[in-house]
Amino acid sequence: QVQLVESGGGLVQAGGSLRLSCAASGLTFSGYAVGWFRQAPGKERTLVALIAPTTGRTYYADSVKGRFTISRDNAKNTVYLQMNSLKPEDTAVYYCAKDQSVYSGTFYMDEDLYHYWGQGTQVTVSS
Questions:
Q1: Dihedral angle at the C-alpha atoms of 48, 113, 79, 65, nearest 10 degrees?
Q2: Kind and range of the H or E element at 51?
Q3: Fewer beta carbons below 10 Å: N end or C end of the chain?
Q4: What is the 8-class DSSP label of residue 105?
């Protein structure tokens, strides 16, 4: 079965940290960019971070830059999102997804170009 499974969400106080994981089964992340997205209540889903397959190149939304770090372990077929200095506005369901196309040096911001969405993991930051 092809799927992505997110985990690591939870309830944390403002200023705290969480580490999210995105594990792939039935498919490989090798050669593909992988992204973390989030959807807050009543809002559209937005891009949080992207990571290239082997170069370590990353992209972050301005709202999380300097606080979140995306990383990947290709041997484990897993991508992580370390979230520090969390704020109440980070409260959302966090999803990971894989770029549909083999990475060629360009990050795509359009979520329609990503597939194999996981079920999401809830992150709640209390003030």
A1: -20
A2: strand 46-51
A3: N
A4: S
